[in-house]
Structure formats: C-alpha cells, structure tokens
Amino acid sequence: MNRLMLNKTILILSTLAAVIGVGFLFWILITLSYKGIMAIHWTTFTHDLVEGGIRNLLVGQFTMAILASVIAVPVGMMAGIYLREYGHGSKLAAVIRNLSDVMMSAPSIVIGVFVFAILVDPFGGYNGFAGIAALAIMMIPIIISTTDNMLGLVPQELREAGIALGGSKHKIILQVVIKAAKVGIMTGILLSFARIIGETAPLLFTSANNQFFTLNLTEQFPSLTVSIYNLATYPDAPSRDLAWAASFILTVIVLIINLFGRFVVRNKK
Predict the structure, then answer these.
(1) Are residues 22 and 155 in the same domain?
(2) How many domains does the chain have?
C-alpha cells in the first residue's frame, strides 16, 4: 500500500513538474510570437540596423556561422574518425574524448574570454575572425562526439566485408562507414549549427557588433544576437520592438534547423 501511494505521489509530482515546465515554455513562445510578429515590417528585412532593420545583422550572423562551420566540420569529423577508427582503445583517444566532453559543457562565455585573449586583445580591437573562431570552438566538440558515436553504431561486419574485398582502411572508412553513418553525422552538424546561430556571450567578447552593413572581418562585425542584447536595454520603444522582432526571427530560424534535422533522421528511418 505504501509503495502504491509513493508511486502515485511521484507520478503526480512528475506530471505537475512537466506541466509547469511546458506551461512556462508556451508562455514564452506566445509572448515572443505576439510581440515579435507585431513588430515585424517589410523594412525589418530590407534595412540595416542603423535604419531600423536587421538585414546586416542576418547577413553577419549567418556569415560567421557558415565560416565557423567550414572550419569546425572537417576538424570535428576527422577527430571523430580518429577516435573511432584509428585510436580506439588508446590513451590519446581517451584523453581527446574526455576533453571533447568537457568542452561541450564549457560555458560559452568562457570560450569568448579565451578567444578575446588570443585574437582580440593582441590585435587591438574586436573583429569578425575572432567571432568565427569562438563559434568554431563551440561546434567542434559537438561534431566530434556525434561523429564518434555514429561511427560506433555502424556494424563491424561492414568493415570486415570491405577488408575481405581488398579495400584499404581509408577507403572503407570513406566509402562504407561514413556513408552508413552520414544521416546521424549530418544531424549532429545541423544541431551544432543551430546552437551557434543563437549564441550571444562569445560574440560579445570577440566580434561585438556593427550597425552598418559590412563583410570586412577585420573590424567589428554585425551580429543578430548581440544586437538583440543591446536593443533590449535601450529606453526607446522602437529599439525594444526591433529586439522583439529579431528575437522572433532568430527563434524561427533555430526551430527550422532543429526540425529539419529531426525530419532527416525520421525520413531515413
């Protein structure tokens, strides 16, 4: 009897906690959607920040995220391949895997301060390259872990069959193993991209922000997330409305990327 009562009590408390959590989530989303949609105008996408729009911010945010992906994806994938296919069981692989796990849980602001110390302070100012480096550092451990885990799910028989056919190790990895795990690896890449596209803290210390349209990575670079942070603190209503609009657009972008990643996995299954 006591066990049944305890079980029902825990079930009720767990359900109540889930309802409260989901309730707060819907409250945030409804508020964000209402205020964001009401603040969006056509000029929001056609004008730069200095003119009351976010065109340069979207271009700047995606430019840094895409260039960070160009750096992080090959580095992360090659490291993950080494851990699973070449360094399996070695001490070096264990060290790299543990460091990768630590980096995944490292606060983003710490990464921003680190990059500030090596790419901002020595060069005398904020710049886009520093922002790209900070975002790439955040992506790499996620891609390493995803690649390592997805390759581990590929049956060993596929590797043995490739060896039996006379294939070299690197050809088996490229043409058999990676192809079998490509959906899971792609999902990890998309999720890591979705994470960095919404990061603010590391960019505050690295690329800062620019109100004007620019593609010059040697100077302060436009950032959607940093602008949201700045606009939300301004006293005037138009700036706060633009912050709501930018927040809603950023939320939609992140949601689309996450849904696309889930769709790829489900469609493959």
Answers:
(1) no
(2) 2
Q: Contact at 8 Å (CB) between 191 and 142?
A: yes
In angstroms, the CA 54 to CA 223 distance is 9
Rg (CA), the chain: 22
Q: Residues 6 or more apart from 130 whose CB is under 8 A from it?
A: 115, 116, 119, 120, 206, 207
Question: pLDDT for 85-114, tens place per residue?
Answer: 888 778 888 888 888 888 888 888 999 999
What would the two tokens of residue 192 be? 């890591």
DSSP characters over 163-232? HHTT--HHHHIIIIIHHHHHHHHHHHHHHHHHHHHT--HHHHTTT---SS----TTS----HHHHHHHHT
Q: What's 84's DSSP letter?
A: I
The 3-state DSSP class for residue 231 equals helix
Structure tokens at 98: 């543990």
Q: Would the pTM count as exceeding 0.85?
A: yes
Q: Domain of 22?
A: 1-39
Q: Is 87 helix (H, G, I), strand (E, B) or coil?
A: coil
3-state SS track over 105-174: CCCHHHHHHHHHHHHHHHHCCCCHHHHHHHHHHHHHHHHHHHHHHHHHCCCHHHHHHHHHCCCCHHHHHH
